[in-house]
Specification:
single chain; about 170 residues; mainly beta; four-stranded antiparallel sheet; 14 strands; about 50% strand
Length: about 170
């Protein structure tokens, strides 16, 4: 029988506080595994969801055991949890045809289907809000007339940046 080799995949290495992160066992030749999380909780499942309660860098450990528990291998990954910031995208003029599709950092973020009066608050239904760790990100928006907005935005912790598309 081959020795166990511990390994796992992580759904998000940079989650925001309280975001569920999925950890999936990808170990080879393991009869069973033991996960250890930063709060000391342990588990033996193959796929687990865990949320971090504060910002910081946390280590998650997986031990892979052979059938007799005479051999084991250990794998650890660091997860960097952040205090998030937000960007809210909106349009306040009917001169642009809806819908407006928004991509944020290369991924689809949502579609604006109505216009707002004034600057919306983050999370307002008529706007699209993105929540993410601090950093500088790119965005692209395209309306039904193929008008395109492309730019970058700096996200800071505990803040909301409003981006008007018109």
């Amino acid at each position: 029988e081959d020795d166990p080799v511990a390994s796992f995949s992580v759904s998000n290495f940079t989650p925001i506080i309280n975001e569920n992160v999925t950890f999936t066992n990808t170990s080879k030749n393991a009869h069973h595994v033991k996960w250890t999380f930063p709060d000391g909780n342990t588990s033996g499942g193959n796929t687990l969801s865990y949320s971090f309660k504060g910002s910081g860098i946390y280590n998650v450990k997986l031990e892979a055991f052979d059938k007799n528990e005479t051999l084991k291998d250990v794998h650890e990954e660091s997860i960097s949890v952040c205090v998030s910031g937000k960007a809210v995208f909106y349009a306040d003029s009917v001169t642009f045809k809806t819908p407006i599709n928004i991509s944020f950092n290369g991924a689809f973020a949502g579609t604006i289907t109505t216009f707002t009066q004034g600057v919306p608050v983050c999370g307002q239904l008529s706007a699209i809000t993105v929540e993410i760790c601090p950093g500088t990100y790119t965005y692209e928006a395209t309306d039904a007339n193929n008008k395109v907005w492309k730019n970058s935005v700096k996200i800071t912790a505990n803040s909301c940046v409003a981006i008007k598309l018109n």
